[in-house]
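Notebook entry, structure prediction.
Reason for the run: the old model in the group folder had no record of what sequence produced it. Starting over properly, with the input documented here first.
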Amino acid sequence: MTDVDVVVVGAGVVGLASAAQLAAIGRSVCVIERRPRPGMETSTHNSGVIHAGIYYPPGSLKARLCVEGRDLLYDFCERYAVPYRRCGKLIVASSPAEQEQLLELHRRGLENGAGALEIVDADFIRAKEPHVAADCALWSPSTGIISPEAFVRTLVSLCADRDVALLPSTELRAGSVEHDGVHIDTGRERIRSRIVINAAGLHADEVSRTLGGEDYTIYPCRGEYAELAPARTTLVNGLVYPVPHAPGHGLGVHLTRTIDGAVLIGPTVRYQSSKSDYETDREEIEAFVAPTRRLLPEVQLSDVRAGGTGIRPKLCPPDQPFADFLIRCDGRALRLIQAAGTDSPGLTSCLAIGRLVSELVMEALD
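New structure, fully documented this time:
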């Protein structure tokens, strides 16, 4: 039996950020990860956007932690030389009704602390994105882009520097709360921990049940991407979004110029039963052309090719508009802290989530 202060289940960005912060204040930490390497699921299967905090209900954890996390993430990138770009984002309106929605997004974003948001006209849009057709947009200068893969590697390196024990290809097989701590069985190791953090992403609901915690459901929601052909990536300079039409279920098919210069189109939204199926019945390329042309009218089918996919770990079922992050001490299981439902803006928020989780751990240990 190995003894540690904290076991973190899940080596995505939330688990790694939590582990790094706890180790920095002197706690012994072990991270177990079911996949062969950290960050192989949602943490790197996304567009890498650093969100400003515009979309989320004021007062929600998503609103608060997105804004806090955004600033922490920019500082982290500067300190550790993680590739990023504060490129800004345009949310464009294509009708009077959408212009009204822009005003609401502007109001909400300002209330959340999303930065110096501005309603801009066609001249401003052309100066930023000459190929985008719109008369009106919301400009968010504090939105940016990051390399998720480089960010994960840096978090792993920090954890190693701080003596975090990282166990890849290791699943939680069983766990029980005893008088002397939480006993974790991985099939290879037996670990006794004072606290367990559930940062298992798509599998957080299963981990919670295994540890006798609260019963909730993670809904896997697949997002598919297309890309602009390399010769056409000059059509987009930064980030261009439509006004979202399905609150809680994605921000609409948008255009993201990544750190390496590719232009992603997507993601789509598809709830599914599988937590590991990235490919079955994928959208045809033709399905991406119409939403792309609403933003870039000159795009043709020949300009678009297949891209990657990701799966969001949602607490929000398809018939509900919104579910907040679940980040708190579990209501059933002693010594269990939940860090679940971290779909967007989970990447942006992860350092702030890690800070909140470390505060909960310290309170529990005291």
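Summary: The first helix runs from residue 13 to 24.
The old model has been moved to the deprecated folder.
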